[in-house]
Design brief:
By secondary structure, the protein is mainly alpha-helical. It is built from 24 helices and six strands.
Protein backbone atom coordinates (compact mmCIF):
# COMPACT_ATOMS: atom_id res chain seq x y z
CA UNK A 1 0.00 0.00 0.00
CA UNK A 2 1.34 3.43 -0.98
CA UNK A 3 1.93 6.04 1.71
CA UNK A 4 -0.26 9.09 1.43
CA UNK A 5 -0.15 12.56 2.93
CA UNK A 6 -3.39 14.03 4.33
CA UNK A 7 -4.53 15.00 0.82
CA UNK A 8 -5.23 11.79 -1.15
CA UNK A 9 -4.71 13.41 -4.55
CA UNK A 10 -2.05 12.01 -6.91
CA UNK A 11 0.02 15.11 -6.24
CA UNK A 12 0.08 14.38 -2.52
CA UNK A 13 1.08 10.78 -3.18
CA UNK A 14 3.98 11.99 -5.25
CA UNK A 15 4.98 14.28 -2.40
CA UNK A 16 5.36 11.34 -0.05
CA UNK A 17 7.11 9.35 -2.75
CA UNK A 18 9.50 12.18 -3.49
CA UNK A 19 10.22 12.61 0.22
CA UNK A 20 10.98 8.90 0.46
CA UNK A 21 13.26 9.10 -2.57
CA UNK A 22 15.09 12.12 -1.18
CA UNK A 23 15.55 10.44 2.21
CA UNK A 24 16.91 7.33 0.49
CA UNK A 25 19.37 9.31 -1.61
CA UNK A 26 20.55 11.21 1.44
CA UNK A 27 21.01 8.03 3.50
CA UNK A 28 22.91 6.26 0.70
CA UNK A 29 25.43 9.07 0.62
CA UNK A 30 26.26 8.58 4.30
CA UNK A 31 27.49 4.98 4.08
CA UNK A 32 31.16 4.67 4.96
CA UNK A 33 33.64 2.72 2.83
CA UNK A 34 33.35 -0.05 5.46
CA UNK A 35 29.63 -0.37 4.74
CA UNK A 36 28.48 1.19 7.99
CA UNK A 37 26.92 4.38 9.25
CA UNK A 38 29.35 6.35 11.38
CA UNK A 39 28.23 9.42 13.22
CA UNK A 40 28.17 11.67 16.23
CA UNK A 41 27.38 9.72 19.40
CA UNK A 42 28.14 12.55 21.80
CA UNK A 43 26.06 14.56 24.22
CA UNK A 44 27.23 13.74 27.77
CA UNK A 45 29.56 16.47 29.00
CA UNK A 46 31.72 14.57 31.45
CA UNK A 47 33.51 12.51 28.77
CA UNK A 48 35.49 15.07 26.76
CA UNK A 49 36.99 16.81 29.82
CA UNK A 50 38.03 13.41 31.15
CA UNK A 51 39.71 12.77 27.78
CA UNK A 52 41.55 16.08 28.02
CA UNK A 53 42.55 15.42 31.64
CA UNK A 54 43.78 11.93 30.80
CA UNK A 55 45.82 13.22 27.86
CA UNK A 56 47.39 15.81 30.15
CA UNK A 57 48.10 13.19 32.82
CA UNK A 58 49.94 10.81 30.49
CA UNK A 59 51.73 13.51 28.48
CA UNK A 60 49.77 12.97 25.27
CA UNK A 61 50.13 16.01 23.04
CA UNK A 62 46.95 16.93 21.18
CA UNK A 63 47.48 18.64 17.84
CA UNK A 64 46.44 22.25 17.43
CA UNK A 65 43.36 21.49 15.31
CA UNK A 66 42.08 18.98 17.87
CA UNK A 67 42.65 21.35 20.75
CA UNK A 68 40.92 24.20 18.94
CA UNK A 69 38.01 21.90 18.05
CA UNK A 70 37.64 20.77 21.66
CA UNK A 71 37.63 24.35 22.94
CA UNK A 72 35.08 25.34 20.31
CA UNK A 73 32.82 22.44 21.26
CA UNK A 74 33.01 23.11 24.99
CA UNK A 75 32.19 26.77 24.49
CA UNK A 76 29.28 25.86 22.21
CA UNK A 77 27.61 23.70 24.88
CA UNK A 78 28.15 26.05 27.82
CA UNK A 79 24.87 27.08 29.44
CA UNK A 80 23.86 30.72 29.60
CA UNK A 81 24.45 30.73 33.36
CA UNK A 82 28.11 29.81 32.75
CA UNK A 83 27.87 26.19 33.87
CA UNK A 84 27.75 22.92 31.95
CA UNK A 85 25.06 20.26 32.13
CA UNK A 86 25.36 16.53 32.58
CA UNK A 87 24.51 16.45 28.87
CA UNK A 88 24.06 19.13 26.24
CA UNK A 89 20.40 19.82 27.08
CA UNK A 90 20.67 19.60 30.88
CA UNK A 91 20.85 22.37 33.43
CA UNK A 92 24.26 23.03 34.97
CA UNK A 93 25.97 20.55 37.32
CA UNK A 94 28.98 21.24 39.51
CA UNK A 95 30.39 17.85 38.40
CA UNK A 96 30.50 18.66 34.69
CA UNK A 97 31.03 22.40 35.09
CA UNK A 98 34.19 21.77 37.11
CA UNK A 99 35.56 19.16 34.71
CA UNK A 100 34.77 21.30 31.66
CA UNK A 101 36.43 24.31 33.30
CA UNK A 102 39.55 22.28 34.02
CA UNK A 103 39.56 20.99 30.45
CA UNK A 104 39.36 24.50 29.03
CA UNK A 105 42.28 25.59 31.18
CA UNK A 106 44.34 22.51 30.27
CA UNK A 107 43.62 23.24 26.61
CA UNK A 108 45.21 26.66 26.99
CA UNK A 109 42.19 28.86 27.63
CA UNK A 110 43.07 31.77 29.89
CA UNK A 111 41.40 32.17 33.27
CA UNK A 112 40.32 35.63 32.03
CA UNK A 113 38.58 34.24 28.95
CA UNK A 114 34.84 35.07 29.17
CA UNK A 115 33.86 31.40 28.99
CA UNK A 116 36.27 30.48 31.78
CA UNK A 117 35.27 33.46 33.89
CA UNK A 118 31.55 32.73 33.71
CA UNK A 119 32.12 29.02 34.41
CA UNK A 120 34.31 29.77 37.41
CA UNK A 121 31.79 32.22 38.80
CA UNK A 122 29.02 29.64 38.49
CA UNK A 123 31.13 26.92 40.13
CA UNK A 124 32.15 29.08 43.07
CA UNK A 125 28.59 30.33 43.54
CA UNK A 126 27.56 26.69 44.00
CA UNK A 127 30.19 25.81 46.59
CA UNK A 128 33.19 25.13 44.38
CA UNK A 129 34.58 21.74 43.43
CA UNK A 130 33.86 20.42 46.94
CA UNK A 131 30.19 20.05 45.99
CA UNK A 132 30.77 17.98 42.86
CA UNK A 133 29.22 14.55 42.45
CA UNK A 134 31.70 11.76 43.35
CA UNK A 135 32.92 10.96 39.83
CA UNK A 136 34.10 14.54 39.51
CA UNK A 137 35.88 14.52 42.86
CA UNK A 138 37.56 11.24 41.98
CA UNK A 139 38.91 12.44 38.65
CA UNK A 140 40.09 15.70 40.17
CA UNK A 141 41.98 13.69 42.80
CA UNK A 142 43.93 11.87 40.09
CA UNK A 143 44.76 15.27 38.59
CA UNK A 144 45.97 16.55 42.00
CA UNK A 145 43.07 19.01 42.13
CA UNK A 146 41.29 17.31 45.05
CA UNK A 147 42.48 15.06 47.87
CA UNK A 148 41.69 11.37 48.24
CA UNK A 149 40.78 11.94 51.88
CA UNK A 150 37.75 13.81 50.59
CA UNK A 151 36.40 10.77 48.71
CA UNK A 152 34.13 8.03 49.89
CA UNK A 153 36.25 4.86 49.82
CA UNK A 154 36.50 2.90 46.56
CA UNK A 155 38.05 -0.22 48.00
CA UNK A 156 39.72 -2.69 45.64
CA UNK A 157 39.29 -5.25 48.45
CA UNK A 158 35.57 -5.46 47.60
CA UNK A 159 36.56 -7.64 44.64
CA UNK A 160 37.98 -10.20 47.10
CA UNK A 161 34.66 -10.68 48.89
CA UNK A 162 32.92 -14.05 48.44
CA UNK A 163 31.24 -14.02 45.04
CA UNK A 164 28.08 -15.49 46.54
CA UNK A 165 27.37 -12.22 48.33
CA UNK A 166 24.67 -10.13 46.59
CA UNK A 167 26.80 -7.00 46.88
CA UNK A 168 29.90 -8.50 45.23
CA UNK A 169 30.92 -6.22 42.32
CA UNK A 170 30.40 -9.08 39.84
CA UNK A 171 26.67 -8.64 40.51
CA UNK A 172 26.71 -5.07 39.22
CA UNK A 173 25.69 -3.97 35.74
CA UNK A 174 28.72 -4.45 33.51
CA UNK A 175 29.16 -0.72 32.78
CA UNK A 176 29.06 0.00 36.50
CA UNK A 177 31.53 -2.67 37.48
CA UNK A 178 33.88 -1.88 34.58
CA UNK A 179 34.05 1.78 35.68
CA UNK A 180 34.51 1.08 39.39
CA UNK A 181 37.10 -1.62 38.63
CA UNK A 182 39.85 0.84 37.51
CA UNK A 183 38.56 3.46 39.93
CA UNK A 184 39.25 1.06 42.78
CA UNK A 185 42.78 0.42 41.50
CA UNK A 186 43.56 4.12 41.20
CA UNK A 187 42.01 4.77 44.63
CA UNK A 188 43.94 1.89 46.17
CA UNK A 189 47.18 3.35 44.81
CA UNK A 190 46.15 6.96 45.61
CA UNK A 191 47.47 7.68 42.13
CA UNK A 192 48.23 11.35 41.39
CA UNK A 193 50.06 13.12 38.61
CA UNK A 194 53.02 15.40 39.39
CA UNK A 195 52.32 18.95 40.44
CA UNK A 196 52.79 21.92 38.13
CA UNK A 197 52.26 25.70 38.17
CA UNK A 198 49.03 25.30 36.16
CA UNK A 199 47.64 22.76 38.63
CA UNK A 200 48.58 25.05 41.51
CA UNK A 201 46.69 27.87 39.84
CA UNK A 202 43.67 25.62 39.22
CA UNK A 203 43.59 24.67 42.90
CA UNK A 204 43.28 28.36 43.70
CA UNK A 205 40.52 28.82 41.13
CA UNK A 206 38.24 25.90 41.99
CA UNK A 207 37.59 26.40 45.70
CA UNK A 208 35.94 29.04 47.86
CA UNK A 209 38.55 28.65 50.61
CA UNK A 210 42.32 28.19 50.35
CA UNK A 211 43.12 24.64 49.26
CA UNK A 212 45.54 24.04 52.13
CA UNK A 213 42.89 24.87 54.72
CA UNK A 214 40.18 22.47 53.50
CA UNK A 215 39.06 19.75 55.91
CA UNK A 216 38.70 17.08 53.24
CA UNK A 217 37.02 14.28 55.26
CA UNK A 218 34.36 16.75 56.44
CA UNK A 219 33.28 17.29 52.83
CA UNK A 220 33.00 13.67 51.68
CA UNK A 221 29.22 13.70 51.61
CA UNK A 222 28.82 17.30 50.49
CA UNK A 223 27.09 17.42 47.11
CA UNK A 224 25.41 20.35 45.41
CA UNK A 225 21.64 20.03 44.90
CA UNK A 226 22.38 20.46 41.20
CA UNK A 227 24.23 17.14 41.19
CA UNK A 228 22.11 15.19 43.67
CA UNK A 229 19.68 13.53 41.28
CA UNK A 230 19.74 10.22 43.19
CA UNK A 231 19.82 11.01 46.94
CA UNK A 232 22.03 8.68 48.94
CA UNK A 233 20.21 5.98 50.85
CA UNK A 234 20.85 5.12 54.48
CA UNK A 235 22.39 1.88 53.22
CA UNK A 236 25.02 3.59 51.08
CA UNK A 237 25.82 6.03 53.90
CA UNK A 238 26.32 3.13 56.31
CA UNK A 239 28.44 1.23 53.77
CA UNK A 240 30.66 4.28 53.20
CA UNK A 241 31.11 4.69 56.96
CA UNK A 242 32.19 1.07 57.36
CA UNK A 243 34.53 1.27 54.39
CA UNK A 244 36.01 4.45 55.82
CA UNK A 245 36.79 2.65 59.06
CA UNK A 246 38.46 -0.14 57.11
CA UNK A 247 40.46 2.29 54.96
CA UNK A 248 41.90 3.97 58.04
CA UNK A 249 43.63 0.73 58.99
CA UNK A 250 43.75 -1.23 55.74
CA UNK A 251 46.11 -4.19 55.57
CA UNK A 252 48.98 -3.50 53.17
CA UNK A 253 49.19 -7.17 52.25
CA UNK A 254 45.47 -7.44 51.51
CA UNK A 255 45.57 -4.19 49.55
CA UNK A 256 48.35 -5.51 47.33
CA UNK A 257 46.45 -8.74 46.76
CA UNK A 258 43.33 -6.80 45.81
CA UNK A 259 45.24 -4.50 43.47
CA UNK A 260 46.77 -7.50 41.73
CA UNK A 261 43.33 -9.08 41.31
CA UNK A 262 41.87 -5.86 39.88
CA UNK A 263 44.79 -5.32 37.51
CA UNK A 264 44.36 -8.83 36.13
CA UNK A 265 40.72 -8.07 35.33
CA UNK A 266 41.70 -4.76 33.74
CA UNK A 267 44.22 -6.55 31.55
CA UNK A 268 41.63 -9.09 30.46
CA UNK A 269 39.11 -6.39 29.56
CA UNK A 270 41.78 -4.71 27.45
CA UNK A 271 42.63 -7.90 25.59
CA UNK A 272 39.00 -8.89 25.07
CA UNK A 273 38.20 -5.52 23.49
CA UNK A 274 41.47 -4.88 21.60
CA UNK A 275 42.09 -2.03 24.05
CA UNK A 276 38.83 -0.31 23.09
CA UNK A 277 37.06 -1.14 26.39
CA UNK A 278 33.34 -1.37 27.00
CA UNK A 279 32.89 2.42 27.14
CA UNK A 280 34.62 5.79 27.24
CA UNK A 281 34.98 6.23 30.99
CA UNK A 282 36.62 2.91 31.76
CA UNK A 283 38.73 3.36 28.62
CA UNK A 284 40.19 6.58 30.01
CA UNK A 285 40.60 5.11 33.48
CA UNK A 286 42.47 2.12 32.01
CA UNK A 287 44.83 4.53 30.27
CA UNK A 288 45.55 6.10 33.64
CA UNK A 289 45.99 2.72 35.33
CA UNK A 290 48.63 1.61 32.85
CA UNK A 291 50.32 5.02 32.95
CA UNK A 292 50.82 4.64 36.70
CA UNK A 293 51.51 0.90 36.65
CA UNK A 294 53.86 0.78 33.67
CA UNK A 295 54.70 4.26 32.33
CA UNK A 296 55.36 4.14 28.60
CA UNK A 297 54.72 0.40 28.52
CA UNK A 298 53.13 -1.74 25.83
CA UNK A 299 49.69 -1.58 27.44
CA UNK A 300 49.70 2.21 27.51
CA UNK A 301 50.89 2.40 23.90
CA UNK A 302 48.12 0.02 22.82
CA UNK A 303 45.54 2.14 24.62
CA UNK A 304 46.78 5.39 23.13
CA UNK A 305 46.60 3.90 19.63
CA UNK A 306 42.86 3.28 20.09
CA UNK A 307 42.09 6.49 21.97
CA UNK A 308 41.28 8.61 18.86
CA UNK A 309 38.51 6.12 17.95
CA UNK A 310 36.38 7.80 20.60
CA UNK A 311 36.70 11.30 19.14
CA UNK A 312 34.23 12.78 16.67
CA UNK A 313 34.90 15.89 14.62
CA UNK A 314 31.62 17.64 13.91
CA UNK A 315 30.59 21.09 12.72
CA UNK A 316 30.37 22.19 16.35
CA UNK A 317 33.88 20.99 17.18
CA UNK A 318 35.65 17.91 18.54
CA UNK A 319 33.82 15.82 21.12
CA UNK A 320 34.10 12.39 22.71
CA UNK A 321 31.60 9.74 21.71
CA UNK A 322 29.79 7.57 24.23
CA UNK A 323 31.21 4.45 22.55
CA UNK A 324 33.83 3.85 19.91
CA UNK A 325 30.84 4.17 17.53
CA UNK A 326 27.20 3.16 17.14
CA UNK A 327 27.91 1.60 13.75
CA UNK A 328 26.22 -1.79 14.02
CA UNK A 329 23.14 -0.39 15.74
CA UNK A 330 22.59 2.37 13.18
CA UNK A 331 23.45 0.19 10.18
CA UNK A 332 21.06 -2.58 11.20
CA UNK A 333 18.20 -0.09 11.52
CA UNK A 334 19.10 1.52 8.18
CA UNK A 335 18.97 -1.83 6.41
CA UNK A 336 15.52 -2.57 7.80
CA UNK A 337 14.28 0.89 6.82
CA UNK A 338 15.49 0.51 3.24
CA UNK A 339 14.00 -2.97 2.92
CA UNK A 340 10.70 -1.68 4.33
CA UNK A 341 10.59 0.92 1.56
CA UNK A 342 10.34 -1.85 -1.03
CA UNK A 343 12.95 -0.07 -3.15
CA UNK A 344 15.41 -2.92 -3.17
CA UNK A 345 16.83 -3.08 -6.66
CA UNK A 346 17.87 0.56 -6.88
CA UNK A 347 19.54 0.28 -3.49
CA UNK A 348 21.32 -3.05 -3.86
CA UNK A 349 24.84 -1.57 -3.63
CA UNK A 350 23.91 0.11 -0.33
CA UNK A 351 22.32 -3.05 1.06
CA UNK A 352 25.12 -5.37 -0.01
CA UNK A 353 27.80 -3.11 1.39
CA UNK A 354 25.88 -2.88 4.67
CA UNK A 355 25.49 -6.66 4.72
CA UNK A 356 29.26 -7.10 4.43
CA UNK A 357 29.71 -4.91 7.50
CA UNK A 358 27.01 -6.80 9.44
CA UNK A 359 28.63 -10.09 8.41
CA UNK A 360 32.06 -8.94 9.64
CA UNK A 361 30.65 -7.55 12.87
CA UNK A 362 29.20 -10.73 14.35
CA UNK A 363 31.18 -12.02 17.34
CA UNK A 364 32.32 -15.51 16.41
CA UNK A 365 33.74 -16.79 19.70
CA UNK A 366 33.32 -16.58 23.45
CA UNK A 367 35.78 -14.59 25.52
CA UNK A 368 38.57 -16.62 27.15
CA UNK A 369 37.95 -17.63 30.77
CA UNK A 370 34.52 -16.00 30.63
CA UNK A 371 33.35 -17.23 34.01
CA UNK A 372 36.52 -16.13 35.76
CA UNK A 373 36.16 -12.60 34.39
CA UNK A 374 32.39 -12.36 34.94
CA UNK A 375 31.50 -12.42 31.27
CA UNK A 376 28.37 -13.88 29.71
CA UNK A 377 28.79 -15.98 26.58
CA UNK A 378 29.48 -13.96 23.43
CA UNK A 379 29.44 -16.29 20.43
CA UNK A 380 26.83 -15.37 17.85
CA UNK A 381 26.14 -11.89 19.16
CA UNK A 382 26.41 -8.47 17.63
CA UNK A 383 27.92 -5.49 19.46
CA UNK A 384 26.72 -1.90 19.46
CA UNK A 385 29.71 -0.76 17.44
CA UNK A 386 32.31 -3.07 15.93
CA UNK A 387 33.40 -6.65 16.31
CA UNK A 388 36.71 -5.64 17.87
CA UNK A 389 34.80 -4.04 20.73
CA UNK A 390 33.62 -7.53 21.56
CA UNK A 391 30.71 -6.93 23.99
CA UNK A 392 27.51 -8.35 22.44
CA UNK A 393 24.23 -6.78 23.53
CA UNK A 394 20.83 -8.45 23.44
CA UNK A 395 19.04 -5.89 21.28
CA UNK A 396 22.06 -5.30 19.03
CA UNK A 397 22.20 -9.04 18.45
CA UNK A 398 18.49 -9.01 17.68
CA UNK A 399 18.70 -6.10 15.25
CA UNK A 400 21.78 -7.60 13.60
CA UNK A 401 19.92 -10.88 13.15
CA UNK A 402 16.83 -9.11 11.78
CA UNK A 403 18.96 -7.18 9.30
CA UNK A 404 20.81 -10.32 8.21
CA UNK A 405 17.53 -12.16 7.61
CA UNK A 406 16.03 -9.18 5.76
CA UNK A 407 19.03 -9.11 3.41
CA UNK A 408 19.20 -12.85 2.83
CA UNK A 409 17.36 -12.78 -0.55
CA UNK A 410 19.54 -9.99 -1.91
CA UNK A 411 23.12 -11.08 -1.21
CA UNK A 412 25.26 -13.77 -2.77
CA UNK A 413 26.46 -15.40 0.44
CA UNK A 414 23.94 -14.93 3.26
CA UNK A 415 24.83 -15.91 6.79
CA UNK A 416 24.73 -19.63 7.37
CA UNK A 417 22.00 -21.24 9.43
CA UNK A 418 24.65 -22.14 11.99
CA UNK A 419 25.68 -18.52 12.51
CA UNK A 420 22.07 -17.37 12.69
CA UNK A 421 21.33 -20.11 15.20
CA UNK A 422 24.31 -19.01 17.28
CA UNK A 423 22.64 -15.60 17.57
CA UNK A 424 19.37 -17.21 18.62
CA UNK A 425 21.11 -19.38 21.19
CA UNK A 426 22.81 -16.31 22.66
CA UNK A 427 19.51 -14.44 22.93
CA UNK A 428 17.78 -17.43 24.51
CA UNK A 429 20.58 -17.62 27.09
CA UNK A 430 20.06 -13.96 27.99
CA UNK A 431 16.34 -14.07 28.87
CA UNK A 432 15.75 -13.18 32.51
CA UNK A 433 13.50 -14.96 34.95
CA UNK A 434 10.88 -12.23 34.57
CA UNK A 435 10.64 -13.01 30.84
CA UNK A 436 12.42 -9.84 29.74
CA UNK A 437 15.86 -9.17 28.39
CA UNK A 438 18.52 -6.91 29.89
CA UNK A 439 21.39 -5.45 27.86
CA UNK A 440 24.72 -7.30 28.02
CA UNK A 441 23.94 -10.24 30.25
CA UNK A 442 21.43 -11.73 32.63
CA UNK A 443 20.36 -9.62 35.59
CA UNK A 444 22.85 -10.61 38.29
CA UNK A 445 21.87 -8.65 41.36
CA UNK A 446 18.72 -7.92 43.37
CA UNK A 447 16.82 -4.68 42.87
CA UNK A 448 17.82 -3.40 46.30
CA UNK A 449 21.40 -3.03 45.06
CA UNK A 450 20.27 0.30 43.61
CA UNK A 451 20.26 1.51 47.21
CA UNK A 452 24.06 1.26 47.04
CA UNK A 453 24.27 3.64 44.06
CA UNK A 454 27.22 5.91 44.99
CA UNK A 455 27.12 8.25 41.97
CA UNK A 456 24.58 10.89 43.12
CA UNK A 457 23.92 11.98 39.53
CA UNK A 458 23.21 8.77 37.57
CA UNK A 459 20.05 6.74 38.07
CA UNK A 460 19.70 2.95 37.81
CA UNK A 461 23.37 2.05 37.39
CA UNK A 462 23.83 -0.82 39.80
CA UNK A 463 22.10 -3.73 38.06
CA UNK A 464 21.11 -4.65 34.52
CA UNK A 465 17.31 -5.16 34.65
CA UNK A 466 14.97 -6.18 31.86
CA UNK A 467 13.97 -3.48 29.39
CA UNK A 468 10.97 -3.25 27.08
CA UNK A 469 13.21 -2.25 24.18
CA UNK A 470 15.63 -5.15 24.55
CA UNK A 471 12.76 -7.58 25.09
CA UNK A 472 10.88 -6.38 22.02
CA UNK A 473 13.94 -6.53 19.77
CA UNK A 474 14.69 -10.09 20.88
CA UNK A 475 11.07 -11.16 20.38
CA UNK A 476 11.00 -9.66 16.90
CA UNK A 477 14.24 -11.40 15.96
CA UNK A 478 13.10 -14.76 17.35
CA UNK A 479 9.83 -14.45 15.44
CA UNK A 480 11.67 -13.74 12.18
CA UNK A 481 14.02 -16.67 12.77
CA UNK A 482 11.08 -18.96 13.50
CA UNK A 483 9.44 -17.95 10.22
CA UNK A 484 12.66 -18.69 8.32
CA UNK A 485 13.56 -21.92 10.14
CA UNK A 486 10.29 -23.31 11.57
CA UNK A 487 11.79 -26.44 13.06
CA UNK A 488 14.93 -25.00 14.66
CA UNK A 489 14.79 -24.30 18.40
CA UNK A 490 11.00 -24.24 17.99
CA UNK A 491 10.07 -25.21 21.53
CA UNK A 492 12.60 -22.90 23.14
CA UNK A 493 11.55 -19.97 20.97
CA UNK A 494 7.84 -20.51 21.61
CA UNK A 495 8.44 -20.58 25.35
CA UNK A 496 10.66 -17.50 25.22
CA UNK A 497 8.08 -15.59 23.16
CA UNK A 498 5.28 -16.29 25.60
CA UNK A 499 7.40 -15.25 28.56
CA UNK A 500 8.56 -12.12 26.74
CA UNK A 501 5.00 -11.14 25.86
CA UNK A 502 3.96 -11.46 29.50
CA UNK A 503 6.83 -9.19 30.50
CA UNK A 504 5.91 -6.54 27.91
CA UNK A 505 2.24 -6.66 28.93
CA UNK A 506 3.16 -6.29 32.58
CA UNK A 507 5.49 -3.38 31.83
CA UNK A 508 2.72 -1.38 30.18
CA UNK A 509 1.47 1.47 32.31
CA UNK A 510 -2.24 1.90 33.10
CA UNK A 511 -2.42 4.80 30.61
CA UNK A 512 -1.26 2.51 27.80
CA UNK A 513 2.32 3.79 27.63
CA UNK A 514 5.66 2.07 27.93
CA UNK A 515 8.58 3.90 29.44
CA UNK A 516 11.61 3.91 27.19
CA UNK A 517 15.03 3.61 28.78
CA UNK A 518 17.46 4.00 25.88
CA UNK A 519 15.52 6.59 23.90
CA UNK A 520 13.26 9.53 24.71
CA UNK A 521 10.98 8.17 25.91
CA UNK A 522 7.30 7.22 25.64
CA UNK A 523 7.16 7.38 21.85
CA UNK A 524 10.26 5.17 21.83
CA UNK A 525 8.67 2.80 24.33
CA UNK A 526 5.43 2.63 22.32
CA UNK A 527 7.27 1.64 19.14
CA UNK A 528 9.01 -1.24 20.87
CA UNK A 529 6.03 -2.24 23.00
CA UNK A 530 3.63 -2.52 20.07
CA UNK A 531 6.09 -4.24 17.75
CA UNK A 532 7.04 -6.73 20.44
CA UNK A 533 3.45 -7.76 21.13
CA UNK A 534 2.66 -8.07 17.42
CA UNK A 535 5.77 -10.24 16.99
CA UNK A 536 4.41 -12.46 19.77
CA UNK A 537 1.20 -12.97 17.78
CA UNK A 538 -1.04 -10.34 19.37
CA UNK A 539 -3.73 -8.97 17.07
CA UNK A 540 -3.67 -5.21 16.49
CA UNK A 541 -7.10 -5.18 18.10
CA UNK A 542 -5.72 -6.54 21.38
CA UNK A 543 -6.58 -4.21 24.28
CA UNK A 544 -2.92 -3.65 25.20
CA UNK A 545 -2.12 -2.46 21.69
CA UNK A 546 -5.21 -0.30 21.45
CA UNK A 547 -4.40 1.31 24.81
CA UNK A 548 -0.96 2.13 23.45
CA UNK A 549 -2.54 3.74 20.39
CA UNK A 550 -4.90 5.78 22.53
CA UNK A 551 -1.98 7.01 24.61
CA UNK A 552 -0.03 8.07 21.55
CA UNK A 553 -2.96 9.84 19.97
CA UNK A 554 -3.55 11.75 23.20
CA UNK A 555 -0.05 13.24 22.83
CA UNK A 556 -0.20 14.12 19.12
CA UNK A 557 0.31 17.79 18.30
CA UNK A 558 -2.04 19.78 16.10
CA UNK A 559 0.43 19.65 13.20
CA UNK A 560 0.44 15.84 13.32
CA UNK A 561 3.74 15.50 15.14
CA UNK A 562 5.00 14.15 18.44
CA UNK A 563 7.88 15.54 20.49
CA UNK A 564 9.43 14.98 23.91
CA UNK A 565 12.44 16.38 25.73
CA UNK A 566 15.01 14.51 27.85
CA UNK A 567 12.97 15.54 30.86
CA UNK A 568 10.50 12.77 29.95
CA UNK A 569 13.10 10.27 31.12
CA UNK A 570 14.21 12.14 34.21
CA UNK A 571 10.69 12.96 35.38
CA UNK A 572 9.26 9.66 34.12
CA UNK A 573 6.29 11.39 32.51
CA UNK A 574 5.60 12.73 29.02
CA UNK A 575 7.23 16.18 28.82
CA UNK A 576 6.18 17.95 25.65
CA UNK A 577 8.84 19.60 23.50
CA UNK A 578 8.21 23.11 22.25
CA UNK A 579 7.62 21.70 18.76
CA UNK A 580 7.28 18.38 16.98
CA UNK A 581 10.32 16.17 16.49
CA UNK A 582 10.83 14.11 13.33
CA UNK A 583 12.44 11.15 15.11
CA UNK A 584 9.74 10.82 17.77
CA UNK A 585 7.01 11.35 15.18
CA UNK A 586 8.55 8.50 13.20
CA UNK A 587 8.51 6.19 16.23
CA UNK A 588 4.84 6.99 16.82
CA UNK A 589 4.01 6.38 13.15
CA UNK A 590 5.81 3.01 13.22
CA UNK A 591 3.87 1.99 16.33
CA UNK A 592 0.48 3.10 15.02
CA UNK A 593 1.09 1.56 11.60
CA UNK A 594 1.97 -1.80 13.12
CA UNK A 595 -1.25 -1.52 15.12
CA UNK A 596 -3.25 -1.33 11.90
CA UNK A 597 -3.75 2.44 11.82
CA UNK A 598 -1.62 3.30 8.80
CA UNK A 599 -4.59 4.78 6.95
CA UNK A 600 -5.94 6.73 9.91
CA UNK A 601 -6.20 10.51 9.60
CA UNK A 602 -3.80 10.87 12.53
CA UNK A 603 -1.05 8.88 10.83
CA UNK A 604 -1.64 10.66 7.54
CA UNK A 605 -1.21 14.01 9.31
CA UNK A 606 2.00 12.72 10.85
CA UNK A 607 3.29 11.74 7.42
CA UNK A 608 2.43 15.20 6.22
CA UNK A 609 4.52 16.64 9.06
CA UNK A 610 7.49 14.47 8.07
CA UNK A 611 7.16 15.47 4.42
CA UNK A 612 6.89 19.14 5.29
CA UNK A 613 9.82 19.11 7.71
CA UNK A 614 12.21 17.45 5.28
CA UNK A 615 14.88 19.56 3.61
CA UNK A 616 15.26 19.47 -0.19
CA UNK A 617 18.33 17.22 0.07
CA UNK A 618 16.38 14.58 2.04
CA UNK A 619 17.84 15.47 5.44
CA UNK A 620 16.03 16.85 8.47
CA UNK A 621 16.89 19.86 10.66
CA UNK A 622 18.66 19.17 13.93
CA UNK A 623 16.30 18.72 16.86
CA UNK A 624 16.17 17.59 20.48
CA UNK A 625 18.51 14.85 21.58
CA UNK A 626 16.73 11.50 21.19
CA UNK A 627 18.92 9.03 23.10
CA UNK A 628 19.17 8.45 26.84
CA UNK A 629 20.89 6.26 29.39
CA UNK A 630 20.23 5.74 33.08
CA UNK A 631 17.25 8.14 32.92
CA UNK A 632 19.63 11.06 33.51
CA UNK A 633 22.02 11.55 30.60
CA UNK A 634 20.93 12.32 27.06
CA UNK A 635 23.04 11.13 24.13
CA UNK A 636 22.90 12.01 20.46
CA UNK A 637 22.33 9.42 17.73
CA UNK A 638 23.49 11.18 14.60
CA UNK A 639 21.70 8.88 12.17
CA UNK A 640 18.30 8.64 13.82
CA UNK A 641 17.18 11.61 11.71
CA UNK A 642 18.45 9.85 8.60
CA UNK A 643 16.87 6.46 9.31
CA UNK A 644 13.60 6.75 11.18
CA UNK A 645 11.74 9.28 9.01
CA UNK A 646 12.67 7.12 6.01
CA UNK A 647 11.31 4.07 7.80
CA UNK A 648 8.12 5.86 8.81
CA UNK A 649 7.51 7.11 5.27
CA UNK A 650 7.98 3.58 3.90
CA UNK A 651 5.15 1.09 3.51
CA UNK A 652 5.02 -1.35 6.42
CA UNK A 653 5.65 -4.76 4.87
Amino acid sequence: MRNMAPDSSPGARRTVDSALSAAMTHLSGLLSPEGSLKGDYGGPLFMLPMYVGTAHAVGLELDAATREGMVRYLKSVQNKDGGFGLHVEASSYVFTSTLCYVALRLLGVSAEDPAATSARQWILAHGGALTSAPWGKFFLSVLRLHEYEGLDPLLPELWLLPEALPMHPSRFWCHCRMVYLPMSWLYGKKARIPDSPLLQQLRRELYTTPYEQIDWPAHRTRVSPTDSQVPRSALVLAANHLMGLYESQASTRLRERALSFVLDHIRQEDENTRYICIGPVNKLLHVLVWHFERPGGAELRAHLAQLPDYLWKGPDGVKMNGYNSSELWDTAFAVQAVVASGRIQENLPFLRSAFDFIDRSQVREDTPNAERYYRHRSKGGWPFSTRDHGWPISDCTAEGLKAALALEPFVDSPLSQERLTDAVDLMLSMQNEDGGWATYELTRGPKWLELLNPSDCFSDIMIDPSYVECTSSCMQALARFRERFPGVRAKEIDTAMKRGARYVEKAQRPDGSWEGSWGICFTYGAWFGVWGLVAAGFSPSHPAIQRACDFLLSKQNADGSWGETPESCRQRRYVQAEQGQAVMTSWAVLALSKAGRRDSPEVQRALGFLVGRQRPDGSYPEEHIAGMFNKTSGIHYDHYLDVFPLWALSPVR
